[in-house]
Amino acid sequence: MFTREQTGGYAVRDEVKVLGWRYDWPDFKAALEAYKNPMIANAVDSVTASILSSGFYFTSENPEAAEKVSKWAEKVGLRALLFDVIRELVLTGNSFLKPEGRGEALKLFRIPLIWFKPELDLIVDEEKVTVVNYYVDVHVGTHVELRRVLPASEVIHFAFNVLYPEWPWGCGIAYQLVTRQRDWKGREVPSPLEAEATLRRDLILFMDRSVPKRIIRFDVGDDQLNRIRTEIEPVLKDPGSDFVTNAKFEVGELKAPERLRFEYYQIFENMFTAALRSPVVKLFTTPGFTEASAREATSMFELFTNAVRELVEHVLETKVFPLVTPEHVEIHWGQPQRPELRFAEIIQAAKADAFNPAIISREEARKMLRELGWILEEAEAGAAGEAFSFQRGKLVDTIDEVEIYLVPVDDIDKTTIRYYSVDAERGVSLAVAWVKSRRERQVVALFFDKKLYDWTPEKARDYYANTFPSVLEKLRAAILPETVVRA
Fold first, then answer.
1. Does position 293 have pLDDT exceeding 80, yes or no?
2. What residue segments make up the domains of the chain, in order of their start?
3. Cα(312)–Cα(325) distance, rounded to whole angstroms?
4. Measured CA distances, 127 to 120, 169, 246, 450 (Å)
5. Distance CA 159, CA 92 (A)
6. Do the Cβ atoms of 251 and 214 come closer than 8 Å?
7. pLDDT tens digits, 152-166
């Protein structure tokens, strides 16, 4: 794309400067290797989970645009993709996506970080620095493609905590952990991760060597000593075994240093933990953390997670969502705010008539009123005018109609049965009769004519539970002033 005429590290063409340069970072191979450290993995995963655990949703001035992005996100699995992107972002400060297609057909592919070389082509125009090309080594199984040019215009680069404008790579928590420094004399100092691994190795060696070693001296010749050593080795491995000999011997002991300077390791561990930017490790491993100190540590941790959220929001809203819809769509973390419920709206939603069923059942309405602070007792199934429970009713599904019997047939005075139409168009009627056990007239059955409407047991049950109570209130006076319903 550009002719490289090297002039002091710069290539010049048509007054546009193209810079090719090299730093110690990024070292993605070392950063991904660092993820094997349990403390680093714990810190990275806790930050990632803290950002995504609350979920997210989309808003826009055009609701259809937000709905379009929401459907696209569900289709491509944006939640799982963001988990991988944010994990890379927290660990290395970088993550790359390659988009293909547009609209709801847009697909996003994550490019492995280990493919990227610490090399860039940049355009430097006065104070402005623009990335032109990345360089990647593609490794897929036995397939190797070295030094492929990847135009920056074809990828979406998430870069968090960019330290050098002229070298626009992000720096995650692995940057300080895997990068070596120099002391005041210019000598290279191992990275914190290398030092921590060395300390852990030394600690394991110390624990292994701190076990007292026995010295057994036999007062015999060399030939006899070799025979005795062969015989005594199994005994030394099994402390419960006995060994019998008539040779003279002495047992001595080699002791390891009595005390290891653990405070040196603790000082380094504190520095290592601080570099992780997460209090999770200390909260899990350090006894004595009070609620106040834990709350303060968590609040500082939230500052870091919020900063990562802001970056992800910005990249998604400016580089990803415009590929799905031209309308501006925003992403929000958490769940949509619950709409405020009003008493009048709840009552209206629970109302029904012969032609329009209620939107919510009476029990659902009572539950909502309790959440608003109303003191309502649980309604007893079968109470007049309170709850119309189907549990005590008997449903019969015949060829011509669905029948619901509210009272046992033997308890009805059949000479007093009267039938009334409730909804002539849909074939709903009811029967009123004298109930012997209660010594009063009441609704004893409901009938749903299949010839006039497509009634099923489920539809009849729903009508009885949600619509019939309101219908009965209106028909009570016309049917019989003293008529009640018993479920």
1. no
2. 1-207+260-337, 343-485
3. 18
4. 17, 17, 91, 81
5. 9
6. yes
7. 999 999 999 888 877
